[in-house]
Every structure is written in structure tokens, then in C-alpha cells.
């Protein structure tokens, strides 16, 4: 759900403004309303510094000092440390560039060995020009060495390298390629390369040490910059009144924090107005969900936060996403790996990462659930295993046709659920009169589905064309064709209703068919698991120990690859079904801005 917001407007005397700003920062609950103006130079400068600090922190991630790491005097001032990092990273980048260039030159000279260019130049003064050639080994004819003044130097990677002594009375008329090589000594290049590698190692050791002891300094520096940025933004977003003697500040406070904040403000020497926020104000969005649904909030934020006037759909799509992921992965063995792996990782990660791992565990539970339903364990079809326990359960496992039908069933339920939410959203935002069209479509589809099910169950009476159903369709038709917009005349509504009918029927069919991807992904994951199992046992040599080792390697690599690819698809495609099919049928608008209070960040 979206927590309601209270809008505050403050009038502050300029002499009290700085202390008021610090008090607001200390309290840390007011989200400042941004004015539609260009940011000042101070704001841009702080943004640039913040970006630079984050960039250098990213370059330090993954580095770790060891016992061989050199000692480095690390500045405790963030700006000085940034300058040190800029200098060392610039040196490192330059050295890497020089190393790459030297590698190319060494590679070019390797086939020719370590010779002296002084000798080449002396020969040239005597009228003998040494030229360098190469050709494919299969083209090279040793007889050339008798016919021409040439000498084979080496043969590498299918090519022969040779030199030709070009004199005034002899030319080389062969199908070969001449090559230009650097006029440098190979031994000198290797010495230069060794020297550069040592410098790179030294710099890397220094950066490893900085990563170990300097990141806390950068963390504090980043917090200080963020504080300055917040202060600068606060000043930019504060309006002036009474020729600059009065400062105007506007912002929002969540209802859950409002009572304490208002009591706090009453003690300050400021005049304020407090009022209930409306959609017109475009207040920030703060979500509040249960323990299970809250885990799925990052997924919803990838698309957009809801607008203030509509419903938060997190709690509504979370159970479906949980099931859809399990449907796509659909292997109890893979689900166990996710459940146990994420559980172990929880003990090694920061607090901020633990909710994400809890989400992975829940998705693992969903995968186990569908692995049990289909009888799949690490690609093994349990219904084909000749074990009495599993033999007795064969009738309980769902086959491919049943899983296909289940995928369509999930789609039908989620689409109808989205339509019901659209009705509720419309009532919440615009009143019931503007939701009659959505309600009419929901009634049409749900009543038709119920009647089809009743006819499928059996009985002589045909419910689909019965009087009760015709009455329900007529009622839905009133909402769809006559009352779809109370501000338009009836004839206009009928025309718009006909066009909406075309879009709705074709759109509903297309949306429903999209859910087949759940079945397809689950099936492909199971088939790949089965294929890797077959390869592991078929390709293993018939040698007792070596055979089991090869089998184990193929199983680990194969199932690891399958788990990675299938998990990726099991995230992407349920997201697609959520953000396209479900959100569209739920009438999701989005565009909300996240609640970020003005608060003190420095530690």
C-alpha cells in the first residue's frame, strides 16, 4: 500500500533559516518539494564530485591486500585520497597501454629472434637490403633457398618466416607477403616489458592496500558530499518572499511519521501550513507492505512506482511472480540449490543484501513446489524412475498437456484479477461512474468463464446461453457501450464501446497466449537437464575412477549452465507478464517519485 502524505509549507525568517535547515536535517522525515529550476553551480559541482568518488570506489571493489602488499601512507582527507587515486589510476592506465604496445612489438619480433639492427644497417650501407617475408608453411618450398638469396628464420603457427637479401641484380618473384617489423631489439623490448610489469605490480599492490584501509575514508567523504548536495538542493528548492526576508520551504511527511514531526515543528519559530496531500500535488511515494510482499518491491521499482492516487500493485503481483518463477524453472533440485545457497550466503553479505537473498529463497520454494508437481529433480523425471515410492506417485505428477493448461489458467486468473484491480483503481481515483466500463468487462469475462465451467462439468442445462447469463451479459453491455463515460452522449459512448470491444477481445486473446511462455520455459529447462544427464553418462569413459570424474564434471557444468540460463529466463519472463499483461489490464499508470527525506548522511 501507499502511505498517505501530509504536505507542509513553511515560512521562515532569513535569520532562522540555517538553524531551521539543520533541524529538518536532524529530524530526517521531510521530503523537499523540488522546484522546476535549473540546478546551480554548487549542486552540479557536488554531483560531479559524488560521481567521481563512486567511480573510484567501484575500481577498488574486489581488491584485497595480502602479506606481500607494500605499505602506503593513506590520506585521511577524502579529497586528498581521491587525488592520490586519480594519479595512481592514471599511471596504471598509462602503463597498461604501454604494456599492450610492447606486447604487440614483442609478438611481432618473436619469429625473427634476437638480432642486431646495427648489422642490418651495415649491410644496407654495403648495398644489401634485408627484407622480411612470411608465407603459409604449405606454400614454402626449401628449393627457394637455392634459387634466391633468402634464409629461413623460423616456423610458427603454420607460417614460415624468412629474410631476403635484396641486391641490385636480384628480385623476389614469389607468392609471399612482406612484413614491416619494429626497428628494436627483442632483448631490449623484453627488458622494458619486465620493467613495466614490475611497476604495474607495484601500483596494484598500493591500490590493494588503499582498498583495504581507504574505502572507509571514501565512504565518509561520499557521505559529506551527499550532505553538501542535499544542503545545496535544499537552498535551491527554497523560495524567497518579502524581498528575501522570508524563505519558503515545501515538502511532504508520511502519515506514519507525521504526529512526531508536527509536535517537533510546533517547537520551532516558524509558521507552517499542514494539509492532506492530493494527486495534484504529486507527492512522493512510500510503500508499506507485509514481509512477503515487501521482498518484491525492488522488482516493481524496476518498472515504476505507482502514482499517488492509484493502488500499489506489489502485494497483488507478488504471489503470481512467486508461482511464475517456479513454473519457469520447475525443478525441485534447482529449487533446493537456490534455497540452501541463498540461506548460506545470508551469513556473508551486508544487511542491505539480505532481503534480496530472502527473495531468492522464496523463489527457490516456488521452484521446489513446481518440481514436485511435475516430478522433476535435476532433470530426472521421477515418474520414469523404477522406485516403488515414485511409482505410486505417477498419477499425481502433471504431464505436459496439464502444465500447458495450467499456464493458460494462470494467465486467465491474473488477467481477470488485473481487471478487478482496474475497477477498484478507477473507483479510488475517479469514482464509480467512471469505472462502469471496466466493471462491465470484468463481469462479462468472469460470468462467461463460470458458465463454461458449469457446462464442462456436465448436465443437460446449457449455462452459457441461459437466461441468467444473458442477463449478466446485458448488464455488462450497459457499462461497456452506454455508460462507459458519463460525460459523453450515448451515441458517442456506443461508438467508443464498439472500438473498445475490438481492442479488448483481440488484446485479451493475445495477453492470454503470452502465458504459454511459462510452459515453454519450464519444458525447455527440464529437457536441457535431461540432456545433460544423458551426456554425463554416455560420454564418460568406461574406466572406474576417471569415468565418475568425467560424469561429475559434465553434471556440474551442465546443470550449472542450465540453472543460470533458466533462472535468468525465470526472472525476465515473469517480469514481462507482470509489467505488460498484468499492469495493462490493471490500468497501472505509474510515474511516482520515491520518498527521499532531507536527512543527515555523514557519519
From TrEMBL:
Alphabetical list of InterPro entries matching this protein: V-ATPase_116kDa_su
Name recorded for this polypeptide: V/A-type H+-transporting ATPase subunit I
Superkingdom of this protein's organism: Bacteria
Family that this chain belongs to: Belongs to the V-ATPase 116 kDa subunit family.
Bilayer disposition of the protein: Multi-pass membrane protein
Spans through the membrane: 316-344, 356-383, 403-424, 436-457, 463-483, 512-533, 545-572
Subcellular compartments: Membrane
GO terms for cellular component: proton-transporting V-type ATPase, V0 domain; vacuolar proton-transporting V-type ATPase complex
Any one Gene Ontology molecular-function term assigned to this protein's record: proton-transporting ATPase activity, rotational mechanism
Record flagged with keyword Transmembrane: yes
Coiled coil: 186-213
GO biological process, one term: vacuolar acidification
Organism listed in the record: Saccharicrinis carchari
UniProt keyword annotations, A-Z: Coiled coil, Ion transport, Membrane, Transmembrane, Transmembrane helix, Transport
